[in-house]
Amino acid sequence: MPLNASGPWDFFISHVQRESGRAVALISRDLEIAGKRVWLDVNMDNCSEAAMMEGVDNSSNFVLVLSPGYCESSYCVAEVNRALQSGKNIILCHDEGVNVGAALKAKPPEFESIGSETSIQLVVSDPAFRKVAVDKILSQGRGSLSRESLSLGGPQSVKRMV
Questions:
Q1: Sheet holding 38-39: strands in order across?
Q2: How far apart (Å, rounded) are the C-alpha atoms in residues 35 and 47?
Q3: Which residues, listed in sequence order, are joined to residue 56 by a DSSP beta bridge?
Q4: Which of 66, 81, 121, 162 has the most CB atoms lying inside 10 A of its own CB?
Q5: Least trusted range by pLDDT, from 56-70, 75-89, 130-144
Q6: Residue 146 — pLDDT band, cuts 50, 70, 90?
Q7: CA distances from 62 to 5, 96, 127, 128, 141 (A)
Q8: How far is CA 90 from CA 2, 48, 105, 127, 140, in A?
Q9: DSSP letters for 83-143
Q10: In this structure, are residues 145 and 138 in contact, taking their beta carbons and an 8 Å threshold?
Q11: Residue (of 40, 30, 39) closest to 132 by Cα position
Q12: C-beta of residue 9 within 8 angstroms of C-beta of residue 38
């Protein structure tokens, strides 16, 4: 029996809540508005470590939201290890103002491949830039993404999401 019955998911979002919580909540909601299923710990009935691993296993894409303390979080490190072991599509993102190079210096050697792609900046202070970030995440996602799912709609729908 699944620990969270809402799966499988299109995107698993791995982040440090105290550093990226607000940005991740907004991006997660935007992905859901675009018709995607998102595993986000604060939205799950069960967010135990076993449930997190189930979430990684049952998600098509792994969104790593880099922050200064990301590689210091045992939960985040365990999630990335699971994603790497299972060959998940990893989408690297970071919060506004994060020094990506400095944050990546803290990564363990087994995360060698992480950071070889450009990181998507999650600009949530401006709705138009947030839409760009979500569209980039969708475009890097695995699976058949229809043209409709790549767009969150026109300016009116962006204003409603703020």
A1: 38-39, 9-14, 59-66, 89-95, 120-122
A2: 22
A3: none
A4: 66
A5: 130-144
A6: very low
A7: 19, 20, 23, 24, 9
A8: 23, 22, 18, 24, 9
A9: HHHTT-EEEEEEETT--HHHHHHTS-GGGTTTTSSPPEEE--SSHHHHHHHHHHHHHHSSS
A10: yes
A11: 30
A12: yes
* Residue 8 near residue 58, CB atoms below 8 Å: yes
Mean residue pLDDT across the chain: 85
Exposed e or buried b per residue across 47-68, where buried means at least 16 C-beta atoms within 10 angstroms of its C-beta: beeebbbbbbebbbbbbbbbbb
For 80, the token pair is 């990335």
Buried b (16+ CB within 10 A) or exposed e, 78-111: ebbebbbeeebebbbbbbeebebeebbeebeeeb
